[in-house]
Amino acid sequence: MRTSHGAGGSARRAFPGPGGRRLVGLTAAALVAVSAAACSSSPSTAGPGAASGGSASGAAGGSGCAANATPLTFWGWSAGYDLVVKEFNKTHPDVCVKLQNAGATTAEYVKLNDALKAGDGAPDVAQLEYFEVPSFEITHNLVDLSQYGVASSRADIAPAAWSQVSQGSALYAMPVDLGPLALYYNSKQFSAAGLTVPTTWDQFATAADKLHAADANAAITNFDPESTQDVLALMQQYGAFPFTYSGGTSVGINFTGAAQTAFANYWQGLIDKKEVTTASDFSPAQWANLDSGANAARLSPAWGPVGMQLSIKKTIGDWRAAPMPQAQAGQNLAGNWGGSTLAVVKGSKHAKQAAEFAQWFGGSADAWKILSGPVAGAFPGYVPLLNSPDFQNTTLPISSDAKSNAVFADAAQHLTQTQWPPIMTAALTQWTSTFAGVTKGTETLPQAFQTFQKQLSDYAKAQGFTVTAS
Amino acid sequence: MKRSTRTPLKQRPDDGAVPVRLYGLRRGTTTFLTLVCAAFAVFILAPLVWLLINATKTQAGVYAGPGFWFSKPFRLFQNLADLGKDISGAGVYLHWMQNTLVYAVAGAIGATALSALAGYGFSRFRFRGANSLFYLVMATLLVPITALALPLFLVYAKVGLVNSIWGMILPSMVSPVGIYLMRTFIDASVPQDMIAAARIDGAGELRIFFRIALPLCLPGLVTVLLLSVVAIWNNYFLPLIIFSRNDLYPLTVGLSSLSQAAETGTQAQLVPVLIAGGLVTVVPLIVLFLFLERYFRGGALRGSLTG
Question: Where is the signal peptide (chain A) (predicted)?
């Protein structure tokens, strides 16, 4: 293995030539420069963390365990997980969990796959997003947690979260947090434009017309066609979730059914009329639009406002949450974007303790006290907390004294049940390139749905699945 | 020496430099070329200026105001201080900085030593298969590293190099470009006759290498050393595959995990800290490059040794 390509380009500059008098001095000077840079940029006196095995930053978990405690390795990336692990180690002296950050989402999944293939280096417990659980389950890499009594937590977990990680009586991961969607709108802009909060998607489209007619620069919200999870959450809420899967080798993929086509036409219509923007989720443009009035509302997951209030300035205090508009009046359906689970990885020597840890992590008041706290800020899938008045009455500066959590908590109880297919890794990779044309305006959303239907079905068949279009 | 007394021009430190007007270029041409260079300079420097300005802002400030001007409040020192804390759960920036320094210094010294040995061997010894071996070394440049990712990981797992600093340092010590550079350099700067003379005088091969060849190719050694430091400093792919513990990450992988954390929405102001981290990351390389550039002028263009 070579160091990198970087050296190749500069190599052309190094003409061969003989040495000179000043060269020894220059060598020394260069070395001094390297070490001077070293000193100036790392004033810490701890010494090379790598050489010592990084004991200093290993504060994530290992410290303070009893010598005979059962060691568990836990891969996770979310903020605040280190605090939760610390609390577990304190209250469970017979187990010692070590948290390692192996990268967020896909980066971790790739590493986990590699480690499983190598048969070495996989953790005991891994953080997986809901949609990724079946992908690891189908290769028999997850431990069925029901054999360790984790199913006793069922009553404490939002049903929509539970259904995503279980098949029959088998339970492949412990749900932790959720991201139910709500209509998060700028109340000042809504009242200035004379808009009432829409309760159906038809009303939402009418409100979009009215807003755009009054101000050509204003769009009611943002729709990022390239953000797979965002679009899938909206489809779920619309009653148009494209996947069905209940274990085994048969998957349902349906992007071209009646509901899906209606969904695609609905949003394409708003895009065509420039009544929604198509900025990338979390891009500077999206935040600027929300703060300048170019977007009057955000279809926000429950974990969204926390990051949003750090990214906007002028409209802090103006934002309110309302239930999502419905496909049919009188319905109350919600969608979910994001959230994670803890799975016990097959091959773990201490699966029982690992299951105990996972259950405690997602299903105990002690863990949730920290998870929902100021550092982690996770939105609970844990029902006792969802229902607690303390939680529902919590306010954020971005919404002034309005109680957004109550709206999000209600949405969490009204999520439609979804089943993720075990091919989400490929789906996520393919999605971005297929849907890029919708952002650019070179294709429409219904066209992209058709293309994607074919691409994903072909992929699933090549992987040996039977594909049904429902 | 004789000429220098006649033409005062030659006494300037940058002897050999000829004023542009003497090349007979028209004024319009030089103006045009200068403008092109200036455009490139802006293109290259603008991102650095952006880093510098935005490292002083809050997260809302980064998104709201104009990118190339400051906004209140001034948060530079807070952002820099946050580099020493684990604010995202992704790890501590300063640890990544230390790791990068360890990898870069150890890897670059190793790469230089090995390149010098191999380059000297290829350049000054005739042995069976020398050419084929050299072509083999060069051929490794053609294999895209991404194609090797999984096999590499499986081999690493077998020999216990996953999550080991040696998994990062050992491969960094092998540099085909370095071997090529050292071979070319020694070809040109260590005269065969001088080696032959040393042999006649009874010097051993090791003595010849250390006492004669190495001092003559010092500029080459420094070049390989500095190029290796830069290459290891910027290496992203290898540490990404082999490390699953954030306390082993170098800056490249660490910053990317911080960036992922910033995207997925947390309570901490990660974006300005990420920008401050990017700024601090490039500073050592800029300092290093200033030396690299000066060295190239001083060493490479100096006249040839009469041997």
Answer: 1-46
Residue of A nearest to B89 (CA): A79
Q: Does A346 contact chain B (CB < 8 Å)?
A: no
CATH pick for A181-336+409-468 out of 3.50.50.60, 3.30.160.20, 3.40.190.10, 3.40.50.280: 3.40.190.10
Q: Contact A150/A355 with Cβ under 8 angstroms?
A: yes
Domains of chain B, with CATH numbers?
Answer: 12-82 (no CATH), 93-300 (1.10.3720.10)
pLDDT tens-digit profile of A432-470?
999 999 999 999 999 999 999 999 999 999 999 999 986
- Residue A212 pLDDT level (bands cut at 50, 70, 90): very high
Q: CB contact, 8 Å: B254 with chain A?
A: no
B269 near A CB under 8 A = yes
Closest CA to A140 of A347, A295, A427: A347
| A103 → chain B, closest CA residue | B257
Q: Which fold has domain A57-175+340-378?
A: D-Maltodextrin-Binding Protein; domain 2 (3.40.190)
Give yes or no for a cis peptide into B239 (omega within 30° of 0).
Answer: no
Query: Quick check: B97 contacting A, CB < 8 Å?
Result: yes
How far apart are alpha carbons B238 and B253 in whole angstroms? Answer: 10
DSSP assignments along B263-300, one per residue: HT--SS-HHHHHHHHHHHHHHHHHHHHHHHHHHIIIII
Q: What pLDDT score does B12 carry?
A: 52
Are A282 and B263 a contacting pair at CB < 8 A?
Answer: yes
For testing contact with chain B, the best of A26, A310, A319 (most B CBs within 10 A): A310
Residues B126-154, mean pLDDT to the nearest whole number: 86
How far is Cα A364 from Cα A351, in angstroms, rounded to an integer? Answer: 19
Residue ranges covered by each domain of chain A:
57-175+340-378, 181-336+409-468
pLDDT at residue A186 in the model? 96
Q: Is the ipTM above a cut-off of 0.90?
A: no
Do the Cβ atoms of B64 and A291 come within 8 Å?
yes
CA nearest to B269 within chain A: A310
Cβ atoms of A77 and B89 closer than 8 Å? yes
Q: Which two tokens stand for residue A231?
A: 């679009």
Binned at pLDDT 50, 70 and 90, residue B267 comes out as low
CA A455 to chain centre: 24
Does the structure show a pLDDT above 60 at A346? yes
Is any Cβ of chain A less than 8 angstroms from the Cβ of B229? yes
> pLDDT band at B44, cuts 50/70/90?
very high
Cβ pair B154, A115 in contact under 8 A: no
B219 reaches A (C-beta below 8 A): yes
Contacts of A120 in chain B (CB under 8 A): 157-158, 162
More confident residue, A119 or A289: A289
Give the separation between CA B77 and CA B55, rounded to whole angstroms: 9
